[in-house]
């Protein structure tokens, strides 16, 4: 297309087209300039090279990166935005060489690029911009230089640190490298500490994940860590998890991610660095200078957080943390029309396997009802242990006290369930028999700051005694579920606040004649504050020093009653911790137990907080609004 043809198309004179396309358009109105350039882009009009002066518009944009590997996060967005604005791209790399950088700038001038996006090798090479000025080529400098267009990593570091401060962390480690962007990130971290009046501590600054000591979690050196690099954050995350630390219960972790990729590690809490938006804005800024836009485009990016999965308040501030100690099993179910007995063979057409055991059942129940939970127990060195650990992680339960035992089989429960929900259970102790006092003392840090300890007796009594003693020493409410045991030692009874046996278990721990009330009184005389005797469909009795109260069972159809007691204890403890009275908590626990018998399996049938409270609001609204309920739930 000739200049005359294009001028006719644009409805302007040849002189006007020439002035605009040669950058000598000071006397031309902005409206006319925009109209002519728009048509030139649409019709790909470029003046003939033989007639083109050095200032002729070529609708080409140059990009000079110091390092294209680093700049590749921007290239795609710059290319896309440039194309939308009618420009093609010419890309060059300078590396660390000022000489190469000079050659690149000269090449951009020789190619008559309309403008250049330029990442200088260093501040010392900024003087090369004079060559672009002399050539009359507009340019946008990107990088941490005065007057340059720059991704504000100091602001990102400030924002990331601020999120951890909002979670009430005061000891925050910073892991950043030594390149210019990482140093900016660190300055943002330091600025936020200053603004929040928190002390800056050099011993909390680390160059990489390898230098960040995992022992710092245990000794309280830091309760949170902010990472410049997602790769370094992943390294530390995996190291901490392999050592059985729980994130975020033991440590909150926050990192950055490439906003253009959306974050390829969604299980890590991370702020998006908006490289796409930055590249697009750089292209718009350059075109605004080339085409002399009346208004420069604004750039106010945010840094969205993908998830709070690895964020929490410090452990000592985590509300209502519960410890569950006891047996951990794989539950193996067989369903029958009628239960087997001596001399009779029966067949089953339905079987299932679930992670279970009283320790794990109660932990899952409490977690689903809204509390933080830690488990202490043992699994074997077999494939079943992997299933147990996965189930614990899925429920976000702290497994740092759950130990793997090489050479031992994970505990097994063989559960025979009849059509009406009645069941028989046989237990293979496996690794549960290896739980010892040392396991309890090794997990002592879990007791500090907890509020309740659930203890079951399907592990060696020495470990039970140690757990009850330690729980009492730390001032925790202790709740005992006696199972598979005989009379209990005096040393244990004096450290128990609440005991929850069923009628048969009560007879085993208090052998001989006597009514349920008389046997419960015997336990109370040894120091237990409350004895709750569960009776299945008969409800339960609550016995205190001078009180006795019967609670009716909730009306649910029974499919499998195996986990009713664990569901009852989980809800009892949860609502005591929410501030309900003992009687109200037992009534709620009766409903939770009712839900648990409507499905096969224990852990799959444990009710969650929303479902339970919706049921209560519909069926017992006065109960869920009880006056003595704790205000801060």
Automatic annotation (TrEMBL):
Residues holding K(+): 560, 562, 596, 599, 601
Annotated SUPFAM superfamilies: lambda repressor-like DNA-binding domains, Periplasmic binding protein-like I, Ribokinase-like
Main location: cytoplasm
Pathway: Carbohydrate metabolism; D-ribose degradation; D-ribose 5-phosphate from beta-D-ribopyranose: step 2/2
Cofactors (names): Mg(2+)
GO molecular function: DNA binding
Annotated compartments: Cytoplasm
Residues holding substrate: 329-331, 458, 566
Record flagged with keyword Cytoplasm: yes
Gene3D superfamilies, A to Z: 3.40.1190.20, 3.40.50.2300, lambda repressor-like DNA-binding domains
Transmembrane segments: none
Record comment: activity regulation: Activated by a monovalent cation that binds near, but not in, the active site. The most likely occupant of the site in vivo is potassium. Ion binding induces a conformational change that may alter substrate affinity.
Superkingdom, natural source: Bacteria
Described purpose of this protein according to its UniProt entry: Catalyzes the phosphorylation of ribose at O-5 in a reaction requiring ATP and magnesium. The resulting D-ribose-5-phosphate can then be used either for sythesis of nucleotides, histidine, and tryptophan, or as a component of the pentose phosphate pathway.
Protein name per UniProt: Ribokinase
Lineage, top ranks: Bacteria, Bacillati, Bacillota, Clostridia, Lachnospirales
Gene that this sequence comes from: rbsK
């Amino acid at each position: 297309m000739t200049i005359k043809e294009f001028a006719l198309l644009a409805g302007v004179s040849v002189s006007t087209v020439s002035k605009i396309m040669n950058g000598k358009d000071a006397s031309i109105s902005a409206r006319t300039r925009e109209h002519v350039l728009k048509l030139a882009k649409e019709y790909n009009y470029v003046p003939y090279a033989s007639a083109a002066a050095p200032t002729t518009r070529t609708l080409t944009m140059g990009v000079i990166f110091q390092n294209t590997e680093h700049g590749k996060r921007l290239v795609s967005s710059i290319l896309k935005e440039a194309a939308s604005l009618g420009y093609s791209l010419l890309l060059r790399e300078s590396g660390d060489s000022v000489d190469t950088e000079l050659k690149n700038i000269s090449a951009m001038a020789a190619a008559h690029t309309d403008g250049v996006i330029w990442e200088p090798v260093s501040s010392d090479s900024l003087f090369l911009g004079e060559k672009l000025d002399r050539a009359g080529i507009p340019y946008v400098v990107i990088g941490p230089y005065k007057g340059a267009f720059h991704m504000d990593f100091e602001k990102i570091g400030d924002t990331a640190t601020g999120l951890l401060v909002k979670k009430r962390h005061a000891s925050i480690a910073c892991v950043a490298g030594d390149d210019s962007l990482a140093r900016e990130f660190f300055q943002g971290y330091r600025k936020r500490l200053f603004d929040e009046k928190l002390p800056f501590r050099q011993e909390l600054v680390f160059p990489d994940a390898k230098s960040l000591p995992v022992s710092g979690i245990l000794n309280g050196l830091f309760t949170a860590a902010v990472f410049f690099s997602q790769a370094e954050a992943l390294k530390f995350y995996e190291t901490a998890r392999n050592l059985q630390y729980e994130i975020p219960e033991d440590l909150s972790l926050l990192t950055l991610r490439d906003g253009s990729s959306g974050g390829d590690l969604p299980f890590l809490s991370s702020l998006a660095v908006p490289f796409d938006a930055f590249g697009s804005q750089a292209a718009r800024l350059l075109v605004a200078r080339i085409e002399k836009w009346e208004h420069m485009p604004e750039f106010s990016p945010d840094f969205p957080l993908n998830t709070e999965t690895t964020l929490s308040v410090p452990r000592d501030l985590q509300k209502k943390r519960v410890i569950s100690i006891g047996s951990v099993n794989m539950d193996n179910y067989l369903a029958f029309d009628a239960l087997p007995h001596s001399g009779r063979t029966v067949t089953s057409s339905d079987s299932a396997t679930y992670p279970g055991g009283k320790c794990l059942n109660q932990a899952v129940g409490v977690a689903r009802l809204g509390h933080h939970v830690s488990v202490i127990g043992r699994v074997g060195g077999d494939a079943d242990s992997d299933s147990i650990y996965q189930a614990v992680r899925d429920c976000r339960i702290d497994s740092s006290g759950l130990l793997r035992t090489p050479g031992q089989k994970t505990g097994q429960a063989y559960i025979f369930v009849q059509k009406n929900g009645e069941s028989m259970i046989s237990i293979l102790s496996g690794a549960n028999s290896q739980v010892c006092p040392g396991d309890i003392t090794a997990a002592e840090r879990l007791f500090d700051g907890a509020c309740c300890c659930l203890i079951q007796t399907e592990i060696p009594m020495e470990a039970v005694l140690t757990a009850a003693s330690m729980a009492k020493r730390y001032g925790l409410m202790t709740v005992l579920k006696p199972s598979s045991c005989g009379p209990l030692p005096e040393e244990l009874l004096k450290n128990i606040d609440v005991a929850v046996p069923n009628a048969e278990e009560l007879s085993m721990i208090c052998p001989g004649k006597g009514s349920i009330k008389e046997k419960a009184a015997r336990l109370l005389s040894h120091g237990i504050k409350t004895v709750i005797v569960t009776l299945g469909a008969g409800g339960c009795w609550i016995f205190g020093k001078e009180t006795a109260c019967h609670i009716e069972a909730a009306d649910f159809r029974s499919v499998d009653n195996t986990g009713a007691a664990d569901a009852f204890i989980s809800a009892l403890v949860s609502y005591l911790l929410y501030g309900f009275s003992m009687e109200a908590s037992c009534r709620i626990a009766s409903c939770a137990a009712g839900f648990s018998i409507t499905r096969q399996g224990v852990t799959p049938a444990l009710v969650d907080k929303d479902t339970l409270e919706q049921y209560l609001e519909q069926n017992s609204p006065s109960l869920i609004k009880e006056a003595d309920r704790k205000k801060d739930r």
